[in-house]
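Job type: complex structure
Entries:
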Amino acid sequence: MTGTIFDIQRMSLHDGPGIRTTVFFKGCSMHCFWCHNPESLSVEPDIQFFADRCILCGRCQEVCDRYCHSIDQKTRVHDFKRDSCTKCGKCTQTCAAGSLIKTGEVITPEELVKIVIRDRVFFEHSGGGVTASGGEPLLQSAFVQRFFAILKQQGIHTAVETALNVSPESLTAVIPFTDLFLADIKHPDPDRHRSATGVTNELIFGNFRILEQSGRPYVIRVPVVPGVNDSETVMRALSTRIGSLLHPLYLELMPYHEYGLKKYNSLSREHSALDALHPPSKDTLVRLAKCYDTVKVIFRDGAKTVTVSGGVLCEKEEP
Ligand code: SF4
Ligand code: SF4
């Protein structure tokens, strides 16, 4: 069995409790226009080219059989002809500047366990563990199931970050091996959800009910995207829709951020829809957090965690 991943981040602090190693799986079943991981969308490998990191050394030009790279030392311009690229990755191995990166590595669950287990000492001292993220990790549910089964045998805490737009079978397969779910919902209205993400939300709410019935701990995560769901009307409607869910640990508002913009350029992808988007202010987030009656709401503000519960606001510095 193999899976396709595109990154492994060590020392993560916001993907579940404690210090975590987060594995990013490639492939997604949604197309949120604000996605900050555009390299995750396709399950196929991608070649990212960060022009601002290029030192024009010319090594990539020397190794590419397809003549995709041409470097003009006079004008100091590096032209990458993506259309001719077979994504073999040869040039990325020669680029010491980190300007060319191949995203998408095929790996077995056993190989992945060997990598993440290196940080066991951090997990043990912080109450942390391993998180599967993406992309949508549950599109590779059988792989995650096997990966987590081995980690559970070794006593390691496991968490999944998911948008829940997957078959109920894919979700139920991993539930016995997952200690915590961090599950997204973007909009309460099915049509608005489809126009923002490409899919309706009925499957997602159905999967929330499966999580609820399973008794596994879960957190509801709501990305706050200007013009999509950053109004009190939308948040109150979402509060009503999730009102029948009795057991979420809390709801986390995840403000839109601009860190993904450079990645769109690195993949030569269009991102004009993002140019007018700016992160919501703290005041907006407090206002939106107060729309929820039945669940504690948190969001992060720099190094602080802000909690709103029963209309009462509390701020705490992160350790
Ligand atoms: S190998 Fe990297 S740094 Fe050198 S020219 Fe190619 S992209 Fe630029
Ligand atoms: S990935 Fe392969 S084909 Fe594509 S530019 Fe690099 S060396 Fe050339």
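Summary: The longest strand covers residues 3-12. The radius of gyration is 21 Å.
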